[in-house]
């Protein structure tokens, strides 16, 4: 029934990523791209070796042996035989193998679990230079931060735009480039919990599309910000200009096309940041004023193939839920993810369950047992604290002596 239970005792420290913009000189960018070329070669060799092992195992029935330890040995042999590969740092190449191992293990796990093809992660694929952007990972022995600058193995020196201080010494860093050509450094650090004073309040949260989040306390409802809808006209203009300037396949694009493509990418990036900022501010407010948080464990991925795909993407439910989980962990709040099954069919007032599911067009829930009537999403939000095991007296519509029957367990 409950997907996750976080109590204050379990939140003393936690890993977190701190992202910073990088100022990269032409020399440093050339070095990073050369390093990425080597790492990309290592990845592609791992993919080729994985496919070869699979074919051999399928023919002979042998056990799988294409793990990171075995690939590390092959990398050592390749570095000894290849001077170009040896000129690069060892750490990012080894981390490339680790990333490949995680990706392959996830794919094999999905295959073993017999998940449907649409839900499987898929085996790692070849990375082509024109289709991938640089991404280099370094462990503690492959980088250092000194005098405000980031030094990477291989003599690469980068200037970091320190927008905030690191809470602790970083254990690893990933340097990557986004679709606008900007470089970033993502540090993994240990963050100590910052418990807030007890608020003595609980809240239930239900996700939706009319309102991104409906809560038991109307003051904390999160309306649909519609950042993407407001930017749609500007994005459509850039896309029309790109279409007019586009050249046939296998021919280099014009300067005008690349200019409009960059403008479209900037607009998309701005919308993504607006969604993230809205979700974080709301999550901070909820965590600050509530000790107990019951959240619907809603997975919006299935909406991507429906007529509500665009609106669901604009709502950014997944990012908002992630921000709420992070804030609860940071401030020592008791957050529980609740299975969404039957939450729209149960009455929060008396606990009776409707015999039939409500169609999406019906936005008002009316209980056939007690006659209570309330907005559909508001009723579901009131069910969440009860499902999570909270029985607060100050949650409107939920009584401590509840009769809710949990058939979804």
UniProtKB/TrEMBL annotation:
Which family is it part of?
In the C-terminal section; belongs to the transposase 35 family.
A molecular function GO annotation: DNA binding
* InterPro entries registered for this protein in UniProt: Cas12f1-like_TNB, Transposase
Where does the Probable transposase IS891/IS1136/IS1341 domain start and stop, copy by copy?
188-298
Please name the source species: Actinopolyspora righensis
Occurrences of domain Cas12f1-like TNB (ranges): 322-383
Q: What is the name of the protein in this document?
A: Transposase, IS605 OrfB family, central region
Q: Name one GO biological process term.
A: DNA recombination
Annotated region Disordered: the residues are 224-288
Which of UniProt's keywords are assigned here? DNA recombination, DNA-binding, Transposition
Pfam families under this entry?
Cas12f1-like_TNB (PF07282), OrfB_IS605 (PF01385)
Please verify whether the record's keywords include Lyase.
no
């Amino acid at each position: 029934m409950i997907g996750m239970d976080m109590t204050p005792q379990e939140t003393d420290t936690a890993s977190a990523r701190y992202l910073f913009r990088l100022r990269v000189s032409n020399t440093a960018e050339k070095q990073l791209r050369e390093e990425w070329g080597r790492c990309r070669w290592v990845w592609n060799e791992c993919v080729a070796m994985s496919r070869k092992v699979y074919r051999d195992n399928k023919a002979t029935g042998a056990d799988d042996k294409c793990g990171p330890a075995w690939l590390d040995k092959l990398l050592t042999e390749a570095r000894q035989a290849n001077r170009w590969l040896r000129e690069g740092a060892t750490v990012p190449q080894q981390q490339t193998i680790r990333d490949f191992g995680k990706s392959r293990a996830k794919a094999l796990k999905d295959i073993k679990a017999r998940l449907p093809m649409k839900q499987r992660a898929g085996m790692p694929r070849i990375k082509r230079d024109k289709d991938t952007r640089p991404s280099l990972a370094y462990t503690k022995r492959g980088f250092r931060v000194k005098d405000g600058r980031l030094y990477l193995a291989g003599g690469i020196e980068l200037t970091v735009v320190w927008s905030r201080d690191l809470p602790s010494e970083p254990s690893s860093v990933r340097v990557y480039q986004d679709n606008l050509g900007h470089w970033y450094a993502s540090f993994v650090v240990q963050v100590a919990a910052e418990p807030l004073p007890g608020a003595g309040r609980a809240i239930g949260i239900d996700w939706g599309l009319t309102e991104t989040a409906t809560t038991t306390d109307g003051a904390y409802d999160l309306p649909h910000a519609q950042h993407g809808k407001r930017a749609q006209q500007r994005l459509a203009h850039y896309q029309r200009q790109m279409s007019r300037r586009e050249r046939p396949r296998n021919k280099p694009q014009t300067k005008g096309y690349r200019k409009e493509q960059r403008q479209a990418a900037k607009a998309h990036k701005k919308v993504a940041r607006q969604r993230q900022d809205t979700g974080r501010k709301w999550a901070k407010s909820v965590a600050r004023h509530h000790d107990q948080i019951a959240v619907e464990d809603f997975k919006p991925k299935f909406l991507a193939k429906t007529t509500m795909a665009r609106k669901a993407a604009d709502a950014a439910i997944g990012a908002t839920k992630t921000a709420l989980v992070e804030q609860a962990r940071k401030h020592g709040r008791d957050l529980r993810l609740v299975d969404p099954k039957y939450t729209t069919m149960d009455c929060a007032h008396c606990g009776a369950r409707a015999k039939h599911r409500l169609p999406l067009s019906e936005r008002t829930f009316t209980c056939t047992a007690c006659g209570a009537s309330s907005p559909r999403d508001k009723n579901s939000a009131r069910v969440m604290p009860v499902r999570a095991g909270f029985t607060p007296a100050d949650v409107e519509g939920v009584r401590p002596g509840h009769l809710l029957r949990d058939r979804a367990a």
